[in-house]
Amino acid sequence: MTSVDTERTVRLTVNGVPRETTVPVRRLLSDALRHDLGLTGTHVGCEHGVCGACTVLVDGAPVRSCLVLAVQADGAAVTTVEGLARDDGRGGQVLHPVQEAFRECHALQCGFCTPGFLVTIAAGLEGRDPAAQITDEEVDDLVGGNLCRCTGYANIKEAVRHAAAAMGDAG
Amino acid sequence: MKPAPFRYADPRSVSEALEVLAAEEGATVLAGGQSLLPLLSMRLAAPTTLVDLNRVPGLDAVEVTGDGVRVGALVRHAGLLADRAAARVQPLLARATANVAHPAIRNRGTTVGSIAHADPSGEMTSVLALTGGSVAVAAPSGSGTVGWRDLFVGPLETSLPAAAVVTSAFFPALPPRSGTAFAEVARRKGDYAVCGAGVVVTLDEDRRVAAVRASYVSVGLVPEVHDLTEAVAGAPVEKADWAAAGALARTLVEPDGDLHASADYRRLLVGVLTERTLTEAAAEAAERTP
């Protein structure tokens, strides 16, 4: 008989590190990341899938972590905003090109929505042909699922174009 | 904004899922969860038990034949959107799926779950109706097929018993000499549609309009199919008066008003979107008619 539980132990790989936590089954993945695993880079805004602030990668694909239960992520590989930067091999870190572009283009003000944008855009740009010039429609598609109340999006879209170009040059 | 406590099971087969559903009163099936989890977090729903289908093997296939497209219960919107074979047999699938929310939602949400959820502002309920589709249902009493007309009872309500799993949805193929189109008006890109329209135009062998059908999103309590043929029947495809079909559609629908749009505004959009989509679908039907 299938077990019916109120609590489960969840094992998942977060930013390349195996993690384990025991949670009530109603725990949202967003809360498990923040409260149980201490990764507060993932921000929680609306908690019903509208704002996009909590977006993380589950097995490489952007999903709303507030719309996934932690138990459903058992066995999955999760990437949060903390996992975007790379080690530089000298004990420091190198920002992801999208993070670098956000800084260059002043694509954030209060920063609350930024983790969701960064993760979504990074996955979107990594999934496309880096040699192809990014179109305005692609840019709109990449940012359309995330709400930002500060910037008016102009600088965020500029950062997407900037990052796409940087990733094209690097590729 | 957190779900009320519930119990959780992730069975490894449909029959195990049915056992749990039958044993746990007040249990609900969880698939993509992109509609269900918001309802739980807002405490608009408080099932005793969630029966998660995500670890049941064999439910994630899109099967394409000349007759149509069968979409398994765990096929994500993004998967269906990217399926070129499915789009060739029934182009409405990709056209409508592209309008479902945002990419991050489409990566997780399932097409079949969206149908079983029976939200009149969902795109895929409307597409199931417009294509004359059906769902395959497994229940403790046995499995069977339920046609779209018998499936939808009201907003978020289907005719299915509580202990049932929709294992797939079937969308019949686009008939010959036909074209389709789908369009929405939403307040922001990816939002629920204020109004959406899907249409199918079929021509006869002389390239005259033989049949015109439309189904709308966020209009009415359950998906319906409206026959608009009489407004343009027999007209050569290049000369058909699609505005007249739009005007007819406005007289047939019964939209409700809400915070986002009045009933009159929705009726206006039905006319506009009908004319716009029919023009596009007619051009495609003409291309497909030698």
For the structure shown, list the relevant keywords:
heterodimer, A: 171 residues, alpha+beta, Ubiquitin-like (UB roll), DNA polymerase, domain 1, 2 domains, five-stranded mixed beta sheet, two-stranded antiparallel sheet, 5 helices, 7 strands, 32% helix, globular, B: 290 residues, Uridine Diphospho-n-acetylenolpyruvylglucosamine Reductase, domain 2, Uridine Diphospho-n-acetylenolpyruvylglucosamine Reductase, domain 3, Enolase-like, domain 1, 3 domains, five-stranded antiparallel beta sheet, four-stranded antiparallel beta sheet, 11 helices, 26% strand, Carbon-monoxide dehydrogenase medium subunit (chain B)
Please tell me about this protein's structure:
The complex is a heterodimer of chains A (171) and B (290). With 171 residues, chain A is α+β, with helices and mostly antiparallel strands. Chain A has helices at 29-36, 97-105, 114-126, 136-143, 154-170, and strands at residues 7-14, 17-24, 55-58, 61-64, 77-79, 86-87, 93-94. Chain A folds into 2 domains: 7-83, Beta-grasp domain (Ubiquitin-like (UB roll)); 86-170, Orthogonal Bundle (DNA polymerase, domain 1). In chain A, strands 2-1-5-3-4 form a 5-stranded mixed sheet, with helices on both faces. In chain A, strands 6-7 form a two-stranded antiparallel sheet. In chain A, a hairpin with a 2-residue loop joins β3 and β4. Chain A is globular. With 290 residues, chain B is an alpha+beta fold. In chain B, 32% of the residues lie in helices and 26% in strands. The model of chain B has no long low-confidence stretch (mean pLDDT 97). Classes of the chains: A alpha+beta (171), B alpha+beta (290). At the A-B interface, β4 of A face β1, α1, α2, β3 and α6 of B. Chain A: Keywords: 2Fe-2S, Iron, Iron-sulfur, Metal-binding, Oxidoreductase. Chain A: Pathway: Alkaloid degradation; nicotine degradation. Chain A: GO terms for molecular function: 2 iron, 2 sulfur cluster binding; metal ion binding; oxidoreductase activity. Chain A: Residues 8-84 form the 2Fe-2S ferredoxin-type domain.
